[in-house]
Amino acid sequence: MELRHLRYFVAVADERNFTRAAERLNIAQPPLSRQIQQLEEELGVVLIEKGSRPVRLTEAGKFFHAHAQELLEQAANLKAMTQRVGKIDRKFAIGFVASTLYGLLPEIVRRFRARYQTLDISFHELATIEQIAALKDGRIDVGFGRLRIEDHAIRRILLREEPLIVALPVGHRLAGVDGPVRLADVSQEALLVYPKQPRPSYADQVLAIFRERMLLPQKVIEVRELQIAIGLVGAGQGVAIVPKSLQGMIRTDVVYKALDEPGAVSPIMFSVRQMDRSPELTNMLEVIYEIYEEMGIAHTRHRL
Ligand code: BEZ
Predict the structure, then answer these.
(1) Could you tell me the domains of the chain?
(2) The whole model's pTM is what?
(3) What pLDDT is attached to residue 141?
């Protein structure tokens, strides 16, 4: 069985018609029918109900269709991914979620750039879920995100678990209290979450943290991005739960308070194409761990 057989079968199943499938494949209909027959002979099962018009798939045909589509998609991704890994002029594209810019990303990039000066580095702001697609089609080489998204084509490394804090409007009743606050203390407030799209996103991570503690925010306001959430906190529209590094976003109208809430953390994930062993990735990981060690940040060293 060759990829060609899968392509032909998927075209017939999608179009539910041999003539249209042959047109889509740019071949004549008789060789298409012969190839499908060959495929059924090789598998020893009937995939298409005999004489059905429009084409109807048997149970085995439906099963084969689903898996053949997945295999074809993987083959297309493999092509894009291999071309990216084998590139001659060393380009390195980094995908990141906006919040990492307030954490260590700038320092990591400065050090990496200074050490590997010939590398052509580009940056792409992408939600974690968008990073997965961008890795697969070769638009980026590494993604720094916050969600644990399972995908067999992607290798994820947990860099660290970043504590969460709460952003309050200046003058808020909790802003002046000593010590950290609890999530229950803010569950009666309007909660600003971001990004609204694409989902699942960091917004769902925050909502899950409330849910896991049997808390229901009084009102949830979904906004497009981090800066809007913080801006609206400043305007007194509500509170936001953000990663600790956001403290670096200094505003006169916002106060950040630590949370006394074990487990209220957001992971920082390093995502790459499965099996990609490009030296840039190992070097980037090395720079990250070096910075963590200098700053005394808890982490576990992983290798690619
Ligand atoms: C961090 O803050 O730990 C971090 C941010 C971006 C990339 C890697 C690590």
Answers:
(1) 3-85 (1.10.10.10), 91-159+266-295 (3.40.190.10), 162-265 (3.40.190.10)
(2) 0.78
(3) 96
